[in-house]
Amino acid sequence: MKIIKKAKQMQTIAHKLKLMGKTIGVVPTMGALHEGHLSLVRIAKKQSDIVILTIFVNPSQFSPNEDFSKYPRTFNNDKSFAQKEKVDYIFYPEASEMYGTDFETYINCEKTSKMLEGEFRPIHFRGVTTIVAKLFNITEPNIAVFGQKDAQQAFIIEKMVKDLNFNTKIIIAPICRTKDGLALSSRNVYLSIFERDDALILSESLKIAKERIGKGERNPKQLQKEIRKIIDTRNSSKVDYIRIVDASSFTYPDKLVKGTEIYILLAVRFGKTRLIDNIKIKIK
Ligand code: AMP
């Protein structure tokens, strides 16, 4: 496994691999790796000859009031995880390598980046699409694997790839959870024992909502109200949003229609830690 820190060097390697006929699978991450990230690596490994794991805590997707400086950085640990998974390259650049002082070109998915997460984190998706586009230009991936955990992000990346004709297939991997249902996240380390216990309400409420839909509830507003009531029972919880969107368009349906797929998307703070979770449901 090689660790590459320079964009030009990574780009030269990727380009040579492509000329040799190899397929490249890329897994973009911010490090602090957990099983969720590794599940993405395993998918990339199965579907391509060479796997490039990128580790970069991307400053342009954090607002000044967010956790950029305290975001967990565990490179030595990440390196041994990657080695065990037989990753071929880790691309691990410095911020100065990715954003020179004269950087001024951004990519923005105009509409979808403003809703949901974008309402609470206005510059977030502009930072995400810009860094992912840069990483794609540097690593020339045939496939890139993202997690459903960040469903809006995955949707926006798919949109960017389609809108800008990137020659990369996007694969969206299922959410990895702990046995008791908490979606794995690098930010879970911020939770106190009590907050972690409260946070289990996210997956519990999604499960209950799925059951309600199974029993015939078709009104998104009613479901959102019921989920909110459940989450509000936990002391440390503070809801940012609970929204149902059509999974193929990220628009808000008035009614759940048979044959369509939806996401129920949650963003809730537990103390100072903001968590997101979701479930994808096919309406029968
Ligand atoms: P991050 O390092 O948090 O930016 O995440 C890197 C990638 O891992 C993103 O595509 C995430 O959606 C994905 N990811 C994060 N948590 C999980 C999880 N619990 N299960 C599956 N994928 C995940």
What does this structure look like?
The protein has 284 residues and is an alpha/beta fold. The protein is built from 10 helices and 9 strands. Strands 1-4-3-2-5-6 form a 6-stranded parallel β-sheet, sandwiched between helices. The chain has a 3-stranded antiparallel β-sheet with strand order 7-8-9. Strand 5, helix 7 (151-163) and strand 6 (169-173) form a beta-alpha-beta unit. Helix 6 (124-139) packs across helix 7 (151-163) and helix 9 runs antiparallel to helix 10. The longest helix is centred in the middle third of the chain and has 16 residues, at 124-139. The model has no long low-confidence stretch (mean pLDDT 98). Residues 29-30, 36-37, 39-40, 146-147, 149-150, 173, 175-176, 183-186 line the site of adenosine monophosphate (AMP).
Give a topology summary:
Blueprint: E1 2-4, H1 7-19, E2 24-29, H2 35-47, E3 50-55, H3 75-84, E4 89-91, H4 95-98, H5 117-120, H6 124-139, E5 143-147, H7 151-163, E6 169-173, H8 193-199, H9 201-214, H10 220-231, E7 237-246, E8 261-270, E9 273-282
Residues 29-30, 36-37, 39-40, 146-147, 149-150, 173, 175-176, 183-186 line the site of adenosine monophosphate.
Q: What's the total helix number?
A: 10
Q: Which segments are poorly predicted (pLDDT under 50) over 5 or more consecutive residues?
A: none
Can you list the ligands bound to this structure?
adenosine monophosphate
Describe the largest sheet.
6 strands, parallel
The N- and C-terminal alpha carbons lie at a distance of 46 Å
Q: Which sequence of SSEs, written as H and E, runs from N to C?
A: EHEHEHEHHHEHEHHHEEE
Strand order of the main beta sheet, please? 1-4-3-2-5-6
